[in-house]
Known about the structure:
Elements: E1 15-18, E2 23-26, E3 34-39, H1 50-68, E4 72-77, H2 84-93, H3 97-114, H4 130-142, E5 146-149, E6 152-155, E7 191-196, E8 211-213, H5 217-227, E9 231-237, H6 241-256, E10 261-267, E11 270-272, E12 296-297, H7 307-313, H8 316-324, E13 332-334, H9 336-358, H10 372-380, H11 384-402, H12 407-427, H13 436-456, H14 470-491, H15 495-507, E14 510-515, E15 518-523
Parallel strand pairs: 3-4, 3-9, 9-10, 11-13
Antiparallel strand pairs: 1-2, 5-6, 6-7, 7-8, 11-12, 14-15
Helix pairs in contact: 2-3, 4-5, 5-6, 8-9, 10-13, 11-12, 11-13, 12-13, 14-15
The chain binds one RNA strand through helix 1, helix 6, strand 12, helix 9 and helix 12.
Amino acid sequence: MAETQQASQTLPTIEIYNTLSHKKESFQTVSPGKVGMYLCGPTVYKPSHIGHMVGPVIFDTVKRYLVYSGWHVTWVVNITDVDDKLIAESAARGMSMADLAREMTTDYLDNLAALGVDGIDEMPKATDHIDGIIAFIQGLVDKGFAYAADGDVYFDVTKDDDYGKLTNRTVEQTQGEGGSTADRKRSPADFALWKQAKPGEPSWESPWGPGRPGWHIECSAMSGALLGKHFDIHGGGLDLVFPHHENEIAQSESLHGCPMATYWMHNGLMQAAGAAGKVGGRPRDGGADPADQAATKISKSTGAEPFKELLSRHRPEAIKLLLLSTHYRSPIHFGEEPLGESARALEAFERLFARYERLGGPSFYGLPTRDRQAGTAALADLAADVSEEVSALRTRFLEAMDDDFNTAIAVASLFDFVRLTNKFIDSHGLEKAPQPADRQALDAIMLVLRELTGTLGLFLAPPVATGGSADEALVGSLMDLVIELRARARKAKDFATADLIRDSLGEAGIQLEDRPDGTGWSKK
RNA sequence: GGCGCCGUAGCCAAGUGGCUAAGGCAGCGGAUUGCAAAUCCGCCAUCGUCGGUUCGACUCCGACCGGCGCCUCCA
């Protein structure tokens, strides 16, 4: 990746909403010019669904924008490959935990690749960090923050003065994981750092006997190992705020005696409209109402479909656009309808890209991406009136991103950008009598559009061509013939024949477009 | 019961104490076109309800109604 490195004094001021302080704060890094960012990744026990992709897409954009703005960013996403759910699932499927983890990790990586999430620098696996995890726990025990009980080790929340600070709750207000281990704990809110292995379960040797890490501890250990005791951004879904992130803070800050992360960023959760039933949460008094049809979060309990199945019906770009059209902290209404709308909206961009190529421009996808300098230079080449408009939209885009990564406004400015560009092409007659100066101006405009879309991670690669096969080539030459025959009919004013051809093709799913420079066709 | 979030046009979704309340999808009218498609132009919301603060609130405060998340596994 060509990262634009700039002197730190030119870094823009970015505001980030911090869950810890419940407000936006100006972004200040621990080390000048450098950003350490950690995102809680998946527990790899089943195929990932759309919910697992929200964080990666959002934080991919965050990283892109920070890099674009001049920071050097290290982004870590963990893979939790040891956990009760993995043990249960692998047993059910009659395979080893490691094999299950490998299979599901591959699935996860495939999905990230499909979405163009390519900025992750490290993906540590919990099982590769068992020694570090044990040392971490031992440190907590030595400092008196944790205690061993029957082969388990628990974190003692009463020893941590500010336990609950992330979610504004007291030790008394948390009920803790109950169940069979409850009687080993000193307080109900204490949580497991190390779990004793039952016979037949995967285990590692430890000072407390064979066992495995509890949930939470792997993130504390691995983020510390890879990003340091105090790093800049810790992210995850809103559902992880409690208990996961609260407990990470408790572990890391108790051991290290310094803040774990400066900024805690949480993305909103996917909502499935019309999904029935309550997901998780304690039943409230008044109780289960059968007419419970409102939007609910997508999660394992609602049986969200595997992401790969979703990809068989929807293009990754449409999914990305939908995610970025909503502010990252808001819930996202997800479903076939919104995805379809998103895909239709996407076409406005792609038609412009195609139009640009027809006018002799290069492929939009090949233009330099997220290059601030190139964008600024392109702007300087434009005539004053156009430059002003383009510049205003670019500024709107950048200011939106500076303000807590407001991709919804950024995307909106992109749609305005498309309109501006089409208008430029129309008003300067570029399809009829192109002037060299106007063509150059169009190049500059497209360069700025590329700069901005690249910053969001949109339009990284051309839509996957369905063709390439011999059949496709055949269809292509047949279409050339049909279009030629129709052109002759039109020239002879035989519009009945021309329209018959167009209507018949339409019924066959092919859309014709008569343009000043010829007739184009596309599949509907 | 505790902690927190939300309620903006037909649908989705930004945003703001006073200036035209972004953008998308859908719809309507127009330009363009042989007719379409695409493109462009225009139209389409007073911001859940009721009170309060204020010269002025959709934006701040309160109550109420409705919805959602977390408090147990969850991206």
